[in-house]
Amino acid sequence: MEIRSLDGDEPATIAALLPGFRDTMSLELPGDPPVTEALLARLFQRRHGTERIVLAAYDGGTPAGVLKLGLDLGDPSGPGHGSLWVFPAFRRRGAGRALAAAGLAALRERGRDLLLADAPRAVAGERFAAGLGAELIGESVRHRLRPAGPASAVLQAAAARPVPGYRLVAWRGPCPDDLVEPYARAWSGLEERVNGQARIRRPSADDVRAREAEAERAGHLPHVVAALPEHGTAIVGYATLFVRDSPMADGGETLVLPQHRRRGLATWLKSELLLGAARENSRLALVQVFNDTADTAVVALNRKLGFEADSYWSTYALKA
Ligand SMILES: CC(C)(COP(=O)(O)OP(=O)(O)OC[C@H]1O[C@@H](n2cnc3c(N)ncnc32)[C@H](O)[C@@H]1OP(=O)(O)O)[C@@H](O)C(=O)NCCC(=O)NCCS
Fold first, then answer.
1. How far is CA 36 from the centre of its chain?
2. Which atom belonging to ligand 1 lies closest to the Cα atom of 122?
3. How many structural domains comprise the chain?
């Protein structure tokens, strides 16, 4: 096995990894639509405020597996966080071990000493992680919802219950110019760390635009619904969703600023978002979101809206 460093923003990287990645996902996530180039481009692109490491194991000229890590540039000694997949035809031949070792070396070179990897909870991953001396440090759940399925009635009912004193504004693609500053200010209230993404300390309008451009480069259209006071111009909450050339879209962030919580805003925002995205994209059949199981508020919200757990994911930590 030869390890090569690849550029996740290069179309040639996506083309090289697509067949193996497709085989892997049809084994690991058999209920998903086939992986498209846009999905892979999104997973491997360098995200705003991060450095991206992509290492591939090659067997002769054929990619056998891949490790991708995102490094937050604002946290110079922080972890590299991502995932490690060995394609099904190449397992139990040391590719996984070789990729983990190369990933740790790449992190050490950059003065970082922790590798975090997310993987569906399964025996292979658990044994592999145990063999490397990795520690299980967290668990996430993947929730899925079919907007036209049984959840539809729940969403319709939630969307029909506005929260008194607030109004919603929805957009697709770039945020309207007059809302970009309030949107950046609301974003700064987001505390949660997202796998492999940077925590932007004081987001500005430029950060908003950079993230929009990043989504567009990978063929993703953001759908956003924001909540504002009825007579004000501040954004006090928002929810985002990313649609690509696939029947499956990805949930993004949902945030309600602390002083506006427990009034039903997230329920209203998210039901409007899901119904609007389904209305505007006739192909959209399925929405997936990943939630930390410790984040009880978001898990409860998603269950209430009709999301169902479909798989549990483990986060392993490996010391360099
Ligand atoms: C886990 C995974 C990366 C292993 O890749 P791999 O290239 O087959 O792993 P290696 O050949 O380097 O195996 C190293 C050791 O891991 C353990 N291991 C790997 N797969 C295993 C399995 N199916 N059952 C039991 N032990 C396993 C063994 O101890 C193995 O050593 P051995 O083959 O000498 O017994 C691969 O199964 C995969 O991509 N799974 C889905 C994603 C995932 O779980 N990633 C890991 C996140 S930490």
1. 16
2. 44
3. 2
